[in-house]
Amino acid sequence: QVRLVESGGGLVQPGGSLRLSCAASGRFFSNYVMRWYRQAPGKQRELVASISSARITNYVDSVKDRFTISRDNAKNTVFLQMNSLKPEDTAVYYCNAENPVTNQGYWGQGTQVTVSS
Q1: What is the pLDDT of residue 104?
Q2: What would you report as the CA-atom Rg of the chain, rounded to the nearest whole angstrom?
Q3: Are β-strands 33-39 and 91-98 bridged in parallel, bridged antiparallel, or unpaired?
Q4: Using one digit for the tens of pLDDT, what is the confidence trace for 100-114?
Q5: HEC string for the chain
Q6: Going by C-beta distance under 8 Å and a sequence separation of 6 or more, which residues neighbour residue 44?
Q7: Closest alpha carbon to 7 in 114, 110, 115
Q8: Residue 102 CA from chain centroid, whole number
């Protein structure tokens, strides 16, 4: 069982930055694939970024060169650094962990990011 707790969301002006954190409980965190998703009102949940156990990263095109996903296995934490934020980045951001052996996934409760002037 893995418990995920996100933090770091808030209200920011366009062009600003935020850093989201996702703290994970449980063992073998370093083996998990970690992902950030987001869901805007009235829209489907969207995969934003992922990082493998080997620290291979992938991003949706709309956030490339603006967002950076990273992980600190010693602290069981994954981060999403978001720069040059736009109003269209407004959403609830969710952390997801996937066990690479069983493919079982776990979700956090989400953290709200609002980009507005």
Answers
A1: 93
A2: 14
A3: antiparallel
A4: 899 999 999 999 999
A5: CCCEEEECCEEECCCCCEEEEEEECCCCHHHCEEEEEEECCCCCCEEEEEECCCCCEEECHHHCCCEEEEEEHHHCEEEEEECCCCHHHCEEEEEEEECCCCCCEEECCCEEEEECC
A6: none
A7: 110
A8: 21
Residues 16, 11: Cα–Cα separation, whole Å: 10
Q: Which amino acid is at 117?
A: S
Rounded distance, CA 5 to CA 23, Å?
5
pLDDT at 96: 98
The top-scoring range by mean pLDDT among 18-22, 23-27, 98-102 is 18-22
89: phi then psi, degrees, rounded to nearest 5:
-85, -5
